């Protein structure tokens, strides 16, 4: 089970850090990802981090501004979002998967959090 938190209202140029806490004892086995969905749009990939936390990947739209990290001891994955833009406004979802390869695709993930809303005002 995944529980996302940390969303809110922020001005353009500001920062937020999202957290996603996982229950269970196999967190270190999971690849963790963040996706987002804006009204009227499909869910899109934001970032993922592999099991050990040593390898990350980002969508071009957030590269250089967002950082994903994973604390296996705390069963938590984070998304640090800096220099936020109005186009970052969306519901952000964390996701976890074990078996897969296309970690930038939502179908690779078996577990999903409930989503947390990020609103960036311009």
Would you write up a description of this structure?
The protein has 122 residues and is an all-beta fold. It contains no helices and 11 strands. It has strands at residues 2-5, 8-11, 16-22, 31-37, 44-49, 56-58, 66-71, 76-81, 90-97, 111-112, 116-121. The strands form 2 sheets. Strands 2, 4, 5, 6, 9, 10 and 11 form a 7-stranded mixed sheet that branches. The chain has a 4-stranded antiparallel sheet with strand order 1-3-8-7, with no helix packed on it. A hairpin with a 4-residue loop joins strand 7 (66-71) and strand 8. The protein is globular. 34% of the residues are buried.
Rg of Cα set? 13 Å
Helix content: under 10%
* Count of helical stretches: 0
Backbone structural class: mainly beta
Give the strand content: over 45%
The biggest sheet amounts to: 7 strands, mixed
The ordered string of helix (H) and strand (E) elements is: EEEEEEEEEEE
Overall residue-averaged pLDDT value: 95
């Amino acid at each position: 089970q995944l529980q996302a938190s940390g969303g809110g209202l922020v001005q353009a140029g500001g920062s937020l850090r999202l957290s996603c806490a996982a229950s269970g004892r196999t967190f270190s086995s999971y690849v963790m990802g963040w996706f987002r969905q804006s009204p009227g749009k499909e869910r899109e990939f934001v970032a993922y981090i592999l099991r050990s936390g040593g390898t990350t990947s980002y969508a071009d739209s957030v590269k250089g501004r967002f950082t994903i990290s994973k604390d296996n001891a705390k069963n938590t994955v984070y998304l640090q979002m800096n220099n936020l833009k109005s186009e970052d406004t969306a519901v952000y979802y964390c996701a976890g998967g074990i078996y897969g390869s296309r970690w930038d695709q939502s179908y690779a993930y078996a577990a999903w959090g409930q989503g947390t809303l990020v609103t960036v005002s311009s």
